Amino acid sequence: MTAAPQAISPDDKPLSQVERVVDTFIAPTKTFTDIRRNASWWLPYILVAVSWCLMAYVADVKVGMDAIVNNQLQLSPKQAEKLDQLPPEQRAEQLRITVKGTRIFWLYIAPILALVFGAIVAGVSMGTFNFGFGAELKFSQCMAVFMYTSLPLIIKTLLAISVLLAGGNEGFTFQNPVASNLGILIDPNSHFLYNIMTAIDLFTIWSLLLAGLAYSCITRVKRGTCMAVVFAWWAIMTLFFAGLGALFA
Prior knowledge:
By secondary structure, this protein is mainly alpha-helical. The chain is 72% helix and 0% strand.
């Protein structure tokens, strides 16, 4: 099972980034094949980051960051208990700081952390395919795969914005802004299981399937193997973050 990059046909028409964004939804193979020619990824990143910041802004206006913080505290009884043990003045001040920090984080810092997370995922993917399957992937190609396969998350954020504008504000959290996952079937207080079930999300699975397809397009590794690699790393990360979240809940 060799993994040398496929040759790019001279008949393949080079795609612009706009065309690749569109083709990610309607003809993903074209987008991912074109990444072998040009691994530029700034446009999908900007689109995802802007849509996220817009959702955070709408949530702040329609729900209020203080209410969002209270919703999150209901899912984190340990933190809520620590706050309740403070004198009223200190509790109010701590809540004020938390609300301000939450606003800054989700509006400004989260898009930057997403970039860092993408770089980590790209590095892990490059190492897995290059050392495990003899591929010759470049970091920029893996970064492009991550960014383009994240595009379905724009639909999720737009759905969340629509719900917020329609007045569906009760219980809103940034960790689970729209009910597109199995978390709706689980008591949020069962922290570890709830974190796992929220990770089994329609749009996340869409992105993972696209990632498996992408790596099969830019390497000679079989599609089924690429899917297995992508989903295996997703399962590992899901278990790790679910456990970490439950530990501090």
